[in-house]
Structures are given as structure tokens and as C-alpha cells.
């Protein structure tokens, strides 16, 4: 059934049978002290605000049978899928692959790579392991969505201006309509968060639509 979600720049009709909730990188490495986010000099507590609103959307999506997809940014333990340009950034003892309090930073299988317990994937919910910022780059997300006839994505997670934004841009170019509930996203830089959302909905929704968890829940 098609319903209208209130959003900017304008309300958007959504058929929930052809929509997916895509939760980007809600990993301990970004949200907890001692992970990748903190090694880059960020205050990770700023991302916590997104957890509860995402949890509310996730629970409702599960109840209603809406497709839920989780993503995790990270690399193979041998780092063979990480470009040098990415590995060489930051102080050597804090780089991707270095050992930190939650295991090797941004490496698959390490505790820091896990999704935070409040949003842990359930059996049957696809988890996309992505080596880049965008969820479409070097992953099977696009065919997975195509096989399920998905046309609309509700995209949330962290960080607003990096992995959420990159994913929305990639999705937009592939023909998906993206709705971003702003309170379900977080950034280490509040000004980038605000500008990131503004950029999505500017120019008639050049990358997509911006809404919030209350308005999405009202339509779900
Ligand atoms: C970053 C992400 N910020 N998930 N990754 O490096 O946004």
C-alpha cells in the first residue's frame, strides 16, 4: 500500500513493499571510545543521539515486515581490500589495522567492527560489509535491492556527511528515491550534519528527501 511520508522538499509517496530501511555503519568503532572515530580525534558521544530514533524505526520496520539492511565499514584482516591512500592516513599507531582497545581498528571480525548491541541485526537481515564510504561501492547491495524490486530507501546511521551522504548519492544515481530521517543520523560535526541534510533536500531534492523518525513512523 502506498502512503505519504511528510518530508522536505515535499511529501513523498512510499510503497512499503518496495522500500527498505538501510542502517549505515552503527558500529562500535564509530560510536564507542577507543574505536576508529575516536582515533581520528572525534567526540564519539555526539553520535549516540541517533541510536534511540533508529531503534524505534527498526522495531517498527521489523513489525511491519519492511526489508531491513545493515552496513558495516571495514576491511579484511590482511587489509588487501584497503587502498594505500586510506591506510596511510593518521598517526601510524592509530591507523586502520592497528590494535586498539576494541581490537584492530576497522577490521572485520574485531569487536569494534560490530554493530552496537541496541541495533544488532536479526537473523535474516542482510549485513553489507563495505570497504568504502558508500554502501554500493564494491558490494552486492544493488543486485540485492533489484531482486526484491526495491525503489525507495530510508537511509540513516553515521556519519551524516560521510557514509550516509555517500550512500544516498550513490543510490540516487542508481535510481532509488532516498528518504533521510535527520534525527536518525549523527555526525562528529553538528554543522556538517545540518549542512549534509540541507544539501540532500536542496534544489527540489537533488539527492533525496529529508524527514524525521516521528514522520516516518507515522507513515509506517
Ligand atoms: C567515516 C562513516 N566517517 N561511516 N565513516 O569514516 O561515516
Detailed description of the structure:
With 220 residues, the protein is an alpha/beta fold. It is 31% helix and 21% strand. The protein contains 8 helices and 11 strands. The strands form 3 sheets. Strands 3, 4, 7, 8, 9, 10 and 11 form a 7-stranded parallel β-sheet that branches. Strand 8 (152-158), helix 6 (160-173) and strand 9 (177-181) form a beta-alpha-beta unit. The protein is globular and about 50 Å long. The model has no long low-confidence stretch (mean pLDDT 97). Bound molecules: dicarbonimidic diamide. Dicarbonimidic diamide (C5J) binds at residues 25, 30, 73, 133, 158-159, 162-163.
> What gross morphology would you assign?
globular
Report low-confidence residues grouped into runs of 5 or more: none
Q: Give the distance, in angstroms, between the N- and C-terminal Cα atoms.
A: 10 Å
Biggest sheet features? 7 strands, parallel
How many DSSP H or I helices?
A: 8
Strand content: 15-25%
> What's the number of extended β-strand segments?
11
Q: How do the helices and strands follow one another from N- to C-terminus?
A: EEEHHHEHEEEHEHEEHEH
How confident overall, as mean pLDDT?
97
The set of bound ligands, ions and cofactors reads:
dicarbonimidic diamide
Query: Rg to the nearest angstrom?
Result: 17 Å
- Structural classification: alpha/beta
Helix content: 25-40%
